[in-house]
Design a protein that fits this description.
alpha/beta, disordered C terminus, 7 strands, globular, two-stranded antiparallel ribbon, Rossmann fold, Arc Repressor Mutant, subunit A
């Protein structure tokens, strides 16, 4: 089994450090890591852009690790995981009695990150009403807790990330122009996995070793046909999807050989006329999609067919693809994917209802940010 390859930066004034947990040495990845090295030693705001599942948080952590603030707080917040009416409190904190349910004083993420780095993931989901307050703390390094008139000074380096097109949101007046330019001081575009195919064998080996050790299973062989199939696959869910599929493959592995976990078209299911076949193995005679959109469309269509066209829920297509439900719906609309004519008597519901998050689940989401 191949040994995972970790890119190592050059020697800086703080000594030689590794980009921990960032696997690969493709030119596309090296370009990103060179930018990380260059900006890490400054206090400038960084905007990390990239598709879902590309590892934006790892890039943010690398910026903090290589910065003079290493050893000080690295605080994370996923803006999309917090209810809108609680997001301001999460960012800036509140005083006891500031609103119904505020039974005690709460310290916000900006205060927690004082002298360190604050990583705001999915920053494009911050509502317009809250954007001026974020702009102020970025410009003035000061804020007030909810329910308090006292101004707090902080020293925070901000790293933001998004999988949305903020420039397009600005044009549509969904995001403040001044905040966009304040965030976009130093942009870093993380490439999708399909743009760094050279890193796939090392990533596969890394995840196989990790899950094999976790499950107590020995994987001795990764067939070349499986690697070839991985390289020809478009990976709409990027590294997160690869990780999930390798976990599945390790569970299914027999005799120390990693099987190919890529989804196949269910037996008896006919593909949509708009869908061309995608190679699911290393067979060179297999049909090849003419465009990346074709292959992505085929993958999504196959997964929807396999899940009975259920999008949400733990067994829905979004979970199997490693995507958010809203992201999958957006991709379906963009690719023109529609459910074929339903047989009489079948329900029209495409998305299974999902129960609201419990307080425990919300806290778990916050810990994962």
């Amino acid at each position: 089994m191949a040994t995972p390859v970790s890119f190592r930066p050059g020697v800086t004034d703080t000594g030689q450090r590794r980009f921990e947990q960032i696997i690969g040495n493709s030119p596309a990845l090296e370009t990103v890591l060179e930018k990380v090295e260059r900006v890490a030693t400054t206090t400038s705001t960084v905007l990390i852009e990239g598709e879902t599942g590309t590892g934006k948080e790892l890039i943010a952590r690398a910026i903090h690790t290589l910065s003079p603030r290493y050893g000080r707080p690295f605080v994370k917040l996923n803006c999309a995981a917090i209810p809108l009416d609680l997001l301001e409190s999460e960012l800036f904190g509140h005083e006891k009695g500031a609103f119904t349910g505020a039974i005690a004083q709460k310290i916000g993420r900006f205060e927690m990150a004082h002298t360190g780095t604050l990583f705001l993931d999915e920053v494009g989901d911050i509502p317009p009403a809250l954007q001026p307050k974020l702009l102020r703390v970025l410009q003035e390094q000061e804020f007030e807790r909810l329910g308090s008139g006292r101004t707090h000074q902080v020293d925070v380096r901000l790293v933001a990330a998004t999988n949305r097109n903020l420039a397009e949101m600005v044009a549509q007046q969904q995001f403040r122009t001044d905040l966009y330019y304040r965030l976009n001081v130093f942009p870093v575009a993380v490439p999708p996995l399909r743009a760094r195919q050279e890193d796939i064998p090392a990533l596969v080996a890394h995840f196989v070793e990790f899950f094999g050790r976790k499950m107590g299973k020995q994987i001795d062989e990764i067939p070349q046909e499986t690697i070839a199939a991985f390289k020809s696959y478009p990976w709409p869910g990027n590294i997160r999807e690869l990780q999930n599929l390798i976990e599945r493959a390790v569970i299914m592995a027999n005799d120390g050989v990693l099987p190919n976990p890529l989804p196949a078209l269910p037996i008896g299911t006919s593909a949509s006329p708009a869908v061309r076949s995608v190679p699911m193995s290393g067979d060179s005679a297999a049909a090849v999609p003419m465009t990346l959109s074709d292959s992505e469309r085929a993958l999504i269509f196959r997964t929807l067919e396999a899940t009975g066209w259920v999008i949400g829920g733990s067994n829905g297509a979004a979970a199997k693809l490693g995507l958010k439900r809203t992201t999958l719906i957006h991709r379906m609309k963009k690719l023109g994917i529609e459910r074929p004519a339903r047989r009489a008597g079948l329900p029209e519901i495409l998305v299974t209802p999902e129960p609201p998050e419990t307080p425990a689940e919300l806290n778990q989401s916050l810990e994962a940010c």
